[in-house]
């Protein structure tokens, strides 16, 4: 496995790859740009996300995944609670030609190990440090995994495999 790196969703650079969000295929996003796609409660207040915003965010995630090495038919495992970023990762993966694979955030590291290997996941998308810790714990046993993308803020932005003596290796 190559060095495993994580990047915050806000750190993802845009690529020139043509990414379309399946949720906005055809004319859905063009016709409903200002209409509400979904709502999220934030500090007790319901906030709307328009179809345009949803499509743009999913496309940005898809482009970031391509920049991280996602190829057509690669599997991207997403480990997160039900948050809008999960939707962006899911639709971004599909729009970039990948296959989305959900992992319950309550799964143990042993279960995550099995699912990542069984699905042959190339990339992992995790919500937070708790989920990232599970991926770090099992990454040596997941030969297909190359990169990781963290959806929520906080903690280290990048990490590499260690040789067990604190030295990084690629």
Provide a descriptive summary of the structure in words.
The strands form 3 sheets. The chain has a 5-stranded parallel sheet with strand order 1-7-6-4-5, with helices on both faces. The protein has a two-stranded antiparallel ribbon with strand order 2-3. A hairpin with a 5-residue loop joins strand 8 (about 160) and strand 9 (about 170). It is built from 5 helices and 9 strands. It is globular. It has one domain (about 5-170): Rossmann fold (3-Layer(aba) Sandwich). The chain starts with 5 loop residues before the first strand and ends with a strand. It is an alpha/beta fold and about 170 residues long. Residues about 1-15 and about 155-170 have low confidence and may be disordered.
CATH-derived architecture: 3-Layer(aba) Sandwich
Large-scale geometry: globular
Poorly predicted parts: 1-17, 154-170
Class per helix and strand makeup: alpha/beta
Average pLDDT, all residues: 77
Strand content: 15-25%
Q: How widely separated are the two ends?
A: 8 Å
Please give the radius of gyration in angstroms. 16 Å
How many extended strands? 9
**CATH class label:** Alpha Beta
Descriptors:
170 residues; alpha/beta; Rossmann fold; 5-stranded parallel sheet; 5 helices; 32% helix; disordered N terminus
């Amino acid at each position: 496995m190559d060095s495993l790196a994580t990047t915050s969703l806000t750190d993802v650079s845009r690529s020139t790859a043509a990414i379309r969000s399946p949720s906005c295929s055809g004319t859905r996003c063009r016709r409903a740009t200002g209409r509400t796609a979904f709502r999220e409660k934030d500090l007790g207040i319901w906030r709307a996300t328009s179809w345009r915003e949803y499509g743009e965010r999913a496309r940005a995630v898809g482009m970031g995944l391509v920049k991280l090495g996602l190829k057509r038919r690669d599997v991207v495992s997403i480990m997160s609670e039900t948050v809008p970023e999960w939707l962006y990762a899911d639709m971004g993966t599909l729009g970039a030609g990948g296959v989305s694979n959900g992992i319950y955030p309550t799964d143990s590291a042993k279960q995550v190990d099995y699912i990542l290997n069984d699905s042959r996941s190339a990339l992992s998308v995790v919500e937070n440090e708790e989920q990232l810790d599970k991926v770090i714990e099992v990454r040596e046993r997941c030969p297909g995994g190359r990169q990781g993308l963290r959806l929520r803020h906080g903690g280290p932005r990048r990490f590499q495999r260690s040789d067990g003596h604190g030295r990084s290796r690629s």
